[in-house]
Amino acid sequence: MARVRLEHVTKRYDDVVAVDDMNVEIEDGEFVCLVGPSGCGKSTTMETIAGLTRPSEGTVYIGDTDVTNLAPKDRGVAMVFQNIALFPHMDVFDNVSFGLRLRTFDDDEVERRVEQAADIVQLEGMLDRMPDEMSGGQRQRVAIARAIVRNPDVFLMDEPLANLDAKLRVHMRTELQRLHRELETTIIYVTHDQAEAMTMSDRIAVINAGELQQIDPPLVCYNEPANLFVAGFIGSPSMNFVRGEVVADGLETKNFTLEFDPAGATGVGVGDDVTLGVRPEDVHLSRNADDLSRPTRGIEVTTDVLEPMGDEIFVYLVLDEGAERTMEEDPLDSPDQLLMSVSPDTDISEDETLEVVLDGSKIHLFDTASGEALVHGIADRSGSDPGTAPTEAED
Amino acid sequence: MSPNDYDETRDDGTPSESSDESANVRGNRADPRRHLPDGGRAPSRLADGGATLGAGGDAELDRGPFSRWVDRSIQNPQRVYRAMFYVAAIFFLFTTLFPFYWLLMVALTPEGQLRDIVFTPNGFNPGAFVEVFQTLPFHWYMFNSFVIATASTVLVLVIASLAGYAFGRLEFPGKTPLMLLVLVVSFFPPAAFFIPLNDLFNTPVEILEPVMSDGTLYNTPGAMVMPISAIFMPLAIFILTTFYAQIPDGLEDAARVEGTTRLGALFRVIIPLSAPGVATAGVLTFIAVYNEFFFSFLMTDGEAENWAPILDGILGYQGQYEILFNLMAAASIIGVLPVAILVIVAQEKIVSGLTAGALKE
């Protein structure tokens, strides 16, 4: 059980900076997910904590000890690897007890602890099997047992579920949460799958290009993303972005205008080049928008493609019929398209012209140049409810 | 176009040939392009038939068994490869094993009757295999050889493992030049090292005096183990480097997080998983040292009690006035047997190690 603190950790390879001035503090017993696209430095961050990589600069603390220059074995960490990394020449018992046998434990103690760990991950009766005789999920559980058997201060998991099939992944996800509740150990979990991050963690650390973008509880990351990257990365399908300019009485974009009072929102000034972000579920059909507290003015659109998902339908909306669409362009970044999700019983068809509104309380404005979030939720013209300023943590 | 069509358009074979062709159809169908590389087939037949009869493709030659065999071989090159394999295999087996056979015949021939030996011994004296041990302490020479070969193998494997780990798993500047330098050592003729080494090993060293009576390494296993190990080290380093480089990084990382040092991970995880490579390097080194001539011959005075290896034992049957060829032959056979057995045993282990898929993840 220990806190983990990274102070100004930077890792440079010959020509790339894998981790750039990372400052993170992880509380005792917390479950933190490091998420980000491939190659963003999350695994390097993890290896720095484990001691497999020495940072070029900065300090790593586990508990109150500076472990920056300690060998991995002296850090009190255990790690579950993406490729599982069981020792193929040892049976399950030897794999699980590998770390114990390297330390001075007597045989009875080793046996007792291995059995206890096997019990927790439900591997009873499989201790004499070889890794290649087991299924992927079983091997994964052996790897977890190997990690928990030593009672580590910190658990590091580097995409442990990435190589499992979808169904098993969901199952192991709940098992890991149960395990966390049972052990109450600090867990640092690397994943590129935001569903895992959203469901399991106490806090999510979003990393991009080696820089920490935001570290907050999952719903804060979802509802109040600190910048364009977090807004686009968290949530599936991701947020709609439309570029526009702040004018005296609202926001003007290429195809529609929103009315709001710029004076009521801190950080927004007339003439600013901003990007509007709105999630697909916050785009509503005008005819269903009666219960919205702050609907925007209606926007004329034409439906393009419908994607029925079963529990909802994704509708691609074309704002400007005349605009040329290219295949290369990400539709979510296009100023002429919006993605809307509606309930599956909605009466809607392709190539239909209709009117949609946005949920004003769920609209985000970002500074286009820096990407920083300016406002989450815009006030209507009356200014009765000023927008929420970004919280402290996001600055 | 199917291979059959192709055949019919080109070839009005005799009935016997046609049946051969149909026997080949399966092979042809498996690879219809097989004809194309020797698309020379049609022209060559034309040239052949044209020269003889001055006519077109219908001309059929009255050919002997050899040209039929050639024709079939062209259609089915696999036959040629198989034939070549058998010829080569028989040739090598003969050149390797026949000297052994002759050695056995010489050993079985009683002393003084060494003539007219082609396929059978001139007389029969299996007692030579016992006499070998009575005339000289040949078992002692064998023991010396074993000690020298085992010590060299252990030394080579330990040092080559460390070097192989560094070359195979670490990144450091100058890695490739250093590896080349190591390999260059093995290209040197041993004679280049002999004079300085002989001088060195005959110089009394103070710290050796409690161990060696005169404080020199001459007439000790060290005088052979050290230079021989150095010469066979590069090959072992090279083999182990390739094997260690193939062990996934994740396994080493896992071992290190679990509580080993890098060195511990090498001995607990990387080496066990590279068992086939370590066995190969070990067996090759053992055999090479066991068979080594140069230093084995020159670094001792040839007495069994002075750690002289088998080589000196065999040469010991050669006296000033007579040469006991039958005992030399018997001793040679006895000396070869342990290594032959080792190779057969180790070969099975190496093959089983490679097919077990130990690294499957």
Domain unit count of chain A? 2
Number of helices of chain B: 16
Total separate domains of chain B: 2
Unreliable parts of chain A: 381-395
Biggest protein-protein contact in the assembly: A-B, 27 and 22 residues
- Oligomer state equals heterodimer
Note the overall shape of chain A: elongated
> How would you name the CATH homologous superfamily of the largest domain in chain A?
P-loop containing nucleotide triphosphate hydrolases
Query: What's the alpha carbon Rg of chain B, rounded to whole Å?
Result: 30 Å
Structural class label of chain A: alpha+beta
Q: Compute the separation of the termini of chain B in Å.
A: 45 Å
Order of helices and strands of chain A: EEEHEEEHHHEHEHEEHHEEEEEEEEEEE
Portion of residues in beta strands of chain B equals under 5%
Indicate the mean pLDDT of chain A: 84
- In what range is the share of β-strand residues of chain A? 25-35%
Distance between the termini of chain A: 29 Å
Largest beta-sheet details of chain B = none
CATH fold-type name of the largest domain in chain A: Rossmann fold
What does this structure look like?
The complex is a heterodimer of chains A (395) and B (361). In chain A, the strands form four sheets. In chain A, strands 6-7-8-3-9-10 form a six-stranded mixed sheet, sandwiched between helices. The longest helix of chain A has 18 residues, at 166-183. Chain A is α+β, with helices and mostly antiparallel strands. Chain A is elongated, with a radius of gyration of 25 Å. Chain A has helices at residues 42-50, 92-102, 107-120, 136-148, 166-183, 194-200, 218-223, 228-233, and strands at 4-12, 17-26, 31-35, 57-62, 65-66, 77-80, 154-158, 186-191, 203-208, 211-216, 240-247, 250-253, 257-259, 273-278, 283-285, 299-308, 313-318, 337-342, 353-358, 364-367, 373-376. Chain A has two domains: 4-231, P-loop containing nucleotide triphosphate hydrolases (Rossmann fold, 3-Layer(aba) Sandwich); 238-394, no CATH class. Chain B has 361 residues and is mainly α. The model of chain B is unreliable at 1-57 and 355-361 (pLDDT under 50). Chain B is built from 16 helices and no strands. The two termini of chain B are 45 Å apart. Chain B folds into two domains: 3-75, no CATH class; 128-355, MetI-like fold, CATH 1.10.3720. Helices cover 69% and strands 0% of the residues of chain B. The interface between A and B is medium-sized, with 27 and 22 residues.
